[in-house]
Amino acid sequence: MNHILGEDRNQLQFLSLEQVVPVDSWARVIDFFVDMLSLDEPGFKHANPEKEGRPPYNPSTLLKLYLYGYKHSIRSSRKMAYSRKINVELWWLLRGLTPSFRTIAYFRKENADAFKASFRRFVLMLKELDIIEGETIAIDSFKIFAQDGLRNNFNQKKIDRHIDYIDRKIEEYEKELNESDAKDKELIKVRIVSHLARKKKYEELDKALKENGENQISLTDPDSRNLMSSKNISGVGYNIQAATDGKHKLFVHAHIGESTDKRELAQAALDIKAALGLGRFKTLSDAGYTTGDQLYLCKQAGITTYSSPMPSTSPSKNCYPLSHFIYYKEGDYYICPDGKEMTAYKGWSHRPNYKSKIYKTKACTDCPIREKCTQNKLGRVIERSEYQDIIDENNLRVKGNKDYYKLRQQIIEHPFGVLKRQWGFTYTLMRGKANVLSEVNLLMIIYNLRRCMTIFGDDFKRRLREYYYLPCQHAV
């Protein structure tokens, strides 16, 4: 019995690229989708080339390359340049063109705004095709590592620690200088000069940190921040805020957030409302977004929030939590677990993002259950935010609609898993918020397109043709 043998490598064959690309190939979907788009409206560079000079690559060609590459976890411009030489589907998709890795890299760098505009236009098109409903929107975040590291990230505490260490070393060297012979003195002087130069660098960082008003500064990528990810792992990166629609779990929004989610809910919800032209809709979010001023802004805009309640707090684990204290709005007072009345102390106190009142009672002095309530010498103190009524309304909605709130994970967690686990988007190749967001938008275009093809198949292509070829819709 002989082995299975292949073809003779020197045998000439007549073969077209069309024959070697399967009918259901992702490359064919990309080719169809990009050819439908008008790339001059989003603002892609060279969409309308000049009459004179060297002809540029058509942006549709490079966009097809990126959509194909990112779907298959090929994100490096050098890897894309190599893949277009050996990948038959890319031969077919690019019609045999071989752009250099520099051309590929500059296309991504120069079209950050165009990627964002393309994503927004695609989302709006899906809304007009009734694929995106806009009734229930789930909002959450995921973190990715930046092109930076902890070594190049500094906060005030870290800068002060370095300066104190250098001051101690210089003091030690100066002490040695008075006790050493002539030969050692020259070496010690060199070390002192070196440490003074390092100290100057940290003093400049200290000055820059105080001038920009931030609590940390990164050297390689100034926009990146030191973030706490899952399992208390610290790393320098970006906090990506994203939102998906409840009907088919499609992405509808993305922006780069701050280090935490506390002040991100309103921005995401209001941007979605404006982009999709929505009147009233509902949002689902976890406890990290449950902040009074954010819930207030959403309520003012007609947005109904379902944000997971923050756990009831207490001064220590052995004390009664806040939920044991009952508030009476008419009299503006609390009743403590011992039945005593706690009234407001003075008026409103101004915080950075809200106002609050302090409630306490003199009965704490002789209270029989004091040990179970507080260890503070002045007695139990309760701070009530001006937005507490809105927070309570939100909490009651979530508790009264537990099955509805459980949809949050189904709507938003799976898309995150596809981006991070299947496509390897755990780090960014770009620097700066605008460029990082371009990578996010590119991946979200791919995800929405891939999911629409999975759900609707060839019917989605038919709907795309109708959308772009009907004059009244194309003008939107």
Tell me what you see in this structure.
The chain has 476 residues and is an alpha+beta fold. It folds into four domains: 17-110, no CATH class; 124-147 and 236-310 and 396-450, Nucleotidyltransferase, domain 5 (2-Layer Sandwich), CATH 3.30.420; 150-218; 322-379, no CATH class. Helices cover 47% and strands 16% of the residues. The chain contains 18 helices and 13 strands. Strands 1, 4, 5, 6, 7 and 8 form a six-stranded mixed β-sheet that branches. It starts with 16 loop residues before the first helix and ends with a helix. The model is unreliable at 470-476 (pLDDT under 50).
Give a short synopsis of this structure:
With 476 residues, the protein is of the alpha+beta class.
Mean pLDDT: 89
How many beta-strand elements? 13
What's the CATH architecture of the largest domain? 2-Layer Sandwich
Which stretches are low in confidence, meaning pLDDT under 50 for 5 or more residues running? 470-476
Helix content: 40-55%
User: What percent strand?
Assistant: 15-25%
Describe the global form: flat
CA radius of gyration is 30 Å
Return the structural class. alpha+beta
List keywords for this structure.
5-stranded antiparallel beta sheet; Nucleotidyltransferase, domain 5; alpha+beta; flat; 476 residues; 6-stranded mixed beta sheet; disordered C terminus
